[in-house]
Amino acid sequence: MAIYVISVGKSILDFLRDPCSKVDEEVDERFERAAKEVLSLAEKPVSDEVSETLENWLKDKDKVSLELAKLIERLAPAHWPASVSAELDTFDKATRLRARLTTGNTAVLITSDTAQGLVSALWNALVLTGGDAKRVNYLPELPGSLQGMRGTAVIARVPQLDARNADDFRAAMGYLGELGRKLLRDVHQECENIRFYLSGGFKATIPYLIGLAEGMRSCAPGEVTACVLHEATEATIELPLRRLFPGTVREELKPFRAGNVSNSEPGGLLEGYAYEKTSDGRWELTAFGAGLRALYKGNEVI
């Protein structure tokens, strides 16, 4: 059993624009019309409207939304090749599972809070589940618990992941840290492996997702690894992950319990990573530090 954390890009939308680039046979008119519907949703200027659509489509686990069921029937994502997106291609080459989520395993798709990201995440999830929308969960925001999501493809909408400044990244990492904490608490089983696939999505987010992986590696009993797909060789590359010392993290993040800025010197070992000194002589939590603070909160690390 494993938990797969997958960063989502928008390359699957390129497939919908030109499906013949990935499949041998020509698509019919029903496919083309359905693809245009999906692409039209992805082009919405307001992501909240798209988020509401996904909520309506996926909220009833006993009965698939008629609108979504029709799109699934016409587009048949169960038959799409893994090459339709960078993230599925990476998953396929690393697991040899033909981009399918086997029973008992859990996939968490990390997507930006954008229309294109949300739509891309949905269709990546439907490929992973063989077109079974009942195995797809959507998190417009983090619930109090992730109980009941084991064995499904979980779409996690991350605010500010399309970051434009340091505050945005700090907010996104805080969200990711909270997500990691709840995965470990509510979904993860003892000694279960956690695997990060980071070929999709904004390249600038890769260091932050590596930071999440390192934080989870430091407190998860099972193996935590991360990889990307090398475009030239089509082979996956393992990414180095540090193991942090929980005692050190606990001690050095104490000054930031009340906020992102502290007058107290934290300690020194995590300077430049979890926090840094400001021009006025104080100390400010970095995005990585915000993620660690959120990740360890439920484990009584700080």
SSE arrangement:
Layout: E1 2-7, H1 11-17, H2 29-42, H3 47-58, H4 66-75, H5 86-95, E2 106-112, H6 115-128, E3 136-139, E4 153-158, H7 166-187, E5 193-197, H8 206-217, E6 224-230, E7 235-238, H9 246-252, E8 261-262, E9 275-277, E10 283-285, H10 287-297
Parallel strand pairs: 1-2, 1-5, 2-4, 3-4, 5-6
Antiparallel strand pairs: 6-7, 8-10, 9-10
Helix pairs in contact: 2-4, 2-6, 3-6, 7-8, 7-10, 8-10
Strand content: 15-25%
Helix content: 25-40%
Principal-axis shape: elongated
Order of helices and strands: EHHHHHEHEEHEHEEHEEEH
Radius of gyration: 20 Å
Distance between the termini: 30 Å
Count of DSSP E strands? Answer: 10
| Total helical segments | 10
User: What about the largest sheet?
Assistant: 7 strands, mixed
Output the structural class: alpha/beta
